[in-house]
Design a protein that fits this description.
- This protein has two domains: about 5-210, no CATH class; about 230-310, no CATH class.
- The protein contains eleven helices and 15 strands.
- The chain has helices at about 20-25, 25-35, 40-45, 75-85, 115-120, 200-210, 230-235, 245-255, 260-275, 280-295, 305-310; strands spanning about 5-10, 10-15, 55, 90-95, 100-105, 105-110, 110, 130-135, 140-145, 155, 160-165, 170, 175, 185, 185-190.
- A six-stranded antiparallel β-sheet has the order 10-11-5-9-8-15, with helices on both faces. The protein has a three-stranded antiparallel β-sheet with strand order 3-4-12.
- Helix 3 runs antiparallel to helix 4 (about 75-85) and helix 8 crosses helix 10 (about 280-295).
């Protein structure tokens, strides 16, 4: 029986009863491994409640006008796409719509993400995968059950990407032409047998791979309680790249020390313009700073709050 579909943001998606573990099961791997061609594999995925859409043969660019937003499980729609493009690769949107999130371990000339993935595995952050897939570049896709909306992100320095809500992947048995001109396929290399699949905490994984850098206090920052003229001189001395941040900080200082908004605007705008900012940009930044300082504290104290002290330095 044809499963009833519902539309969200223009995307035909399956109804909620099907869990990730049901859709992304060992049985689906067996079917994809046995599929005689890409159209058959696309139909197998759709039959398991996994929405698909066609991508360029040998590539990853969507062939549909709205890309993964048009992904569908409807047999007639999927059949018409692969009748038109029988060699099209198979794209699958990631996140709740398909029931799967993917950690993408890249391998390219600039480096490999496998060492960082292994560090994350030892930390217990990527151990609950459903499938492991070898990508054409020699990298890997680790499939995890999607548990709520987790936005896609990249950590280029560690050669690891996360494909969640708002992203998509190319799936086996699609083939991609790599940088060396060779055509290679996506291949399933492992399925969860000795553990229960569980979702990946994408935010925690990103923090592990790319820890927040401590903010360094500029050596020439005016001390707490500095006179307005010293704050203005500090703003006027800033170079391109740090002018807006410094103006914002100085305006927050003046707001917290009880200086009148109009007086602060006049003094700091002149200093900011001498540093190269436009009058309009300077006034907008000062207004934003005063709104922020007012929101973070109901009363003006003699010393900046910890929140303001760390803002944009």
């Amino acid at each position: 029986m044809v499963r009833r579909l519902r539309t969200v943001m223009g995307m035909n998606i399956p109804p909620p009863p099907s869990k990730s573990s049901d859709r992304w099961s060992p049985n689906l791997i067996r079917k994809l491994a046995a599929a005689r061609d890409l159209p058959s594999a696309a139909n197998d995925l759709a039959a398991h409640g996994v929405p698909v859409f066609p991508c360029t043969p040998g590539g990853k660019r969507p062939l549909t006008a709205h890309g993964f937003l048009e992904a569908s499980t409807d047999p007639a729609t999927v059949g018409s796409w692969w009748n038109r493009w029988p060699d099209a690769n198979i794209g699958v949107p990631t996140g709740p719509v398909s029931g799967v999130d993917v950690v993408d371990v890249d391998v390219h000339s600039a480096g490999t993400g496998f060492a960082y993935f292994e560090e994350a595995r030892r930390a217990g952050l990527v151990n609950g995968w459903i499938w492991l897939v070898r990508t054409p570049s020699g990298g890997a896709h680790a499939y995890f059950p999607a548990d709520g909306e987790q936005r896609s992100w990249q950590v280029p320095g560690k050669h690891i990407d996360f494909r969640g809500d708002g992203g998509y992947i190319i799936v086996a048995p699609s083939r991609v032409t790599t940088d060396d001109g060779a055509s290679r396929s996506y291949r399933h290399i492992a399925v969860a047998r000795h553990h229960d699949p569980r979702s990946v905490d994408a935010a925690r994984l990103r923090t592990f791979l790319d820890p927040p850098r401590p903010r360094q206090r500029p050596v020439d920052l005016p001390p707490v309680g500095a006179r307005p003229d010293r704050l203005a001189a500090y703003v006027a001395s800033r170079l391109e790249g740090g002018r807006n941040r410094s103006l914002f900080w100085a305006a927050c200082r003046m707001a917290e020390e009880g200086h009148d908004f109009n007086a602060a605007t006049s003094l700091l705008t002149e200093a900011a313009c001498s540093a190269g900012l436009s009058e309009r940009e300077a006034k907008t930044t000062i207004q934003s700073a005063y709104r922020t300082a007012t929101r973070l504290g109901s009363t003006i104290s003699a010393r900046p709050t910890n929140t303001i002290e760390g803002v944009r330095l």
